[in-house]
């Protein structure tokens, strides 16, 4: 009992400290430049595959409508349900502006100014380019409205204290624009953008601290405690090479699910491949594989 | 408060239990039917490796070797596979999930698909190769087929890897070996996604 009080006290102190800073920092300002871009809904549908939007916002196995709300995502903090992101004005995003959308993705803040739980991977989505956001927004607006809201998150104390997320964001989250490394090839930079941005590979492959923040020092080192008691393998360059992956094999595997040893990728990665990576262009798959197998950041 | 204690301590407890049992199991070794099917999966995997290396472009494409490996896989799908899964046989190091028996129909269907598609691959081995990705399926599967780019669910989610809804083994046998190969890998992956323990 004493232990749990201690943990709860630590959580409260940590978030309160963080929150105090936020009050002075104020809300992030949305980028108006996005509103001036033309969004291409076809490209946006592709970006939705790249970013895994559909898997978390569509309860496919439960027979749910496209993007009308996700299946339960069980985490150590409670159970999350991806919200309805159809264009319905009440249950979905119908009343949002594109700037609201950009702010949600990049800063993890709702139009009403509420912070989102990091189950929504805005820590990666902050790297989205303006054009990708505009395209994604255009695509979302082509989805049929569903007027039923998604299920509410089921969280116990202290994780149901949403105000505390302001502190969490302050401590663990910097909205970071993606910048190409001029010393690297276009292919490598594209791969890094996909892996660390839209595809948010680190959400499952990077371990988190007890408060759910990614451990940047051990990026892509593999993690336990994932939904469904799953464990993700490390996907650092060294580990991938050790397991026999080549750039060609990895690009191939992300499309077909094959592994170097003749086994196939199952579990959640099977779903990621089925709903996400198998839809990507050859070039993007090559970029991902090239980056992952030449990733000095993980050494 | 009590709830919170449970939340923090339960996973730790669970972890200890899981860790200690898997230690015991790892030393237990597979026996009987579980061993038989694990051996079967290993040899199917070996054939898959042979085929994958050729489709991937790591080794020269040898239709005879593809046919041989695909025939082996096809001969070990269907009932040859499902008979190795008597109800509840998840003892020892087995990675099978109880979902197999909760959805026996779905499980058997995938086992049958494996035989059908591997058979189509064996027949298609001599046909001209398909386009793209050093042998793969080309330009990805851009979502959207029609007025709405995000699509209705089915067109966007239910389509086959190469954008073709066609899954008829007889027709597949007439197409590129790549078209049959992708259905074999997808069948393996679908089964291992639903019915094998997540690792």
Report what the structure shows.
- The complex is a heterodimer of chains A (299) and B (199).
- Chain A folds into 2 domains: 32-156; 186-298, Cytochrome Bc1 Complex, Chain D, domain 2, CATH 1.10.760.
- In chain A, helix 1 (2-25) packs across helix 7, helix 8 packs across helix 13 (282-292) and helix 11 crosses helix 13.
- Chain A is built from 13 helices and 5 strands.
- Chain A has a 3-stranded antiparallel sheet, with no helix packed on it. In chain A, strands 4-5 form a two-stranded antiparallel sheet.
- Chain A has helices spanning 2-25, 41-51, 53-57, 98-107, 122-125, 130-140, 164-172, 186-196, 202-205, 237-242, 247-256, 267-275, 282-292, and strands at 72-75, 78-81, 154-155, 223-226, 230-232.
- Chain A is globular and about 50 Å long.
- Chain A has 299 residues and is mainly α.
- The longest helix of chain A is centred in the first third of the chain and has 24 residues, at 2-25.
- Chain B is mostly helical.
- Chain B has a domain at 31-87 and 98-133 and 168-199: Four Helix Bundle (Hemerythrin (Met), subunit A).
- Helices cover 62% and strands 0% of the residues of chain B.
- Chain B contains 9 helices and no strands.
- Chain B is globular, with a radius of gyration of 20 Å.
- Residues 15-28, 132-149 and 151-165 of chain B have low confidence and may be disordered.
- The chains are: A mainly alpha (299), B mainly alpha (199).
């Amino acid at each position: 009992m004493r232990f749990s009080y201690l943990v709860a006290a630590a959580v409260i102190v940590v978030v309160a400290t963080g929150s105090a800073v936020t009050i002075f920092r104020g809300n992030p300002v949305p980028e108006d430049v996005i509103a001036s871009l033309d969004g291409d809904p076809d490209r946006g549908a592709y970006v939705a595959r790249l970013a895994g939007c559909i898997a978390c916002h569509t309860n496919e196995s439960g027979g749910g409508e496209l993007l009308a709300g996700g299946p339960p995502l069980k985490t150590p903090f409670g159970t999350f349900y991806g919200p309805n992101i159809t264009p319905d004005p009440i249950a979905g995003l119908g009343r949002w502006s594109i700037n609201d959308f950009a702010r949600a993705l990049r800063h993890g803040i709702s139009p009403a100014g509420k912070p989102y739980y990091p189950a929504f991977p805005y820590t990666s989505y902050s790297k989205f380019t303006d054009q990708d956001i505009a395209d994604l927004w255009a695509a979302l607006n082509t989805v049929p409205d569903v007027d039923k809201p998604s299920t509410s998150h089921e969280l116990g104390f202290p994780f149901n204290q949403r105000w505390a997320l302001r502190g969490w964001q302050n401590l663990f989250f910097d909205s970071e624009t993606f910048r190409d490394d001029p010393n690297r090839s276009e292919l490598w930079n594209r791969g890094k953008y996909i892996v660390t941005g839209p595809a948010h590979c680190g959400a499952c492959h990077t371990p988190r601290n007890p408060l759910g923040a990614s451990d940047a020092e051990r990026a892509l080192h593999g993690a336990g405690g994932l939904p469904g008691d799953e464990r993700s393998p490390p996907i650092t360059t060294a580990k991938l090479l050790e397991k026999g992956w080549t750039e060609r094999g990895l690009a191939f595997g992300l499309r077909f699910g094959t592994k170097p040893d003749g086994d196939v990728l199952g579990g959640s990665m099977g779903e990621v491949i089925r709903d996400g990576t198998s839809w990507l262009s050859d070039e993007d798959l090559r970029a991902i594989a090239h980056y992952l197998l030449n990733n000095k950041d993980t050494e | 408060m009590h709830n919170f204690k449970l939340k923090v301590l339960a996973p730790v407890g669970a972890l200890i239990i899981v860790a200690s049992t898997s230690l015991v199991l790892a030393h237990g070794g597979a026996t009987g039917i579980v061993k038989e099917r694990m051996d079967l999966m290993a040899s199917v995997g070996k054939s898959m490796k042979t085929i994958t290396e050729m489709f991937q472009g790591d080794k020269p494409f040898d239709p005879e070797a593809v046919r041989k490996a695909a025939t082996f896989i096809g001969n070990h799908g269907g009932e040859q596979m499902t008979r190795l899964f008597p109800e509840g046989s998840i003892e020892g190091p087995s990675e099978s999930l109880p979902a197999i028996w909760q959805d026996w129909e779905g499980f058997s269907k995938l086992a049958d698909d494996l035989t059908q598609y591997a058979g189509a691959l064996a027949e298609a081995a001599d046909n001209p190769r398909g386009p793209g990705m050093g042998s793969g399926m080309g330009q990805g599967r851009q979502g959207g087929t029609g007025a709405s780019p995000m699509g209705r669910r089915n067109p966007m989610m239910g389509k086959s890897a190469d954008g073709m809804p066609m899954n008829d083994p007889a027709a597949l046998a007439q197409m590129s070996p790549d078209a049959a190969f992708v259905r074999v890998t997808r069948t393996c992956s679908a089964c291992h996604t639903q019915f094998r323990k997540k690792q």
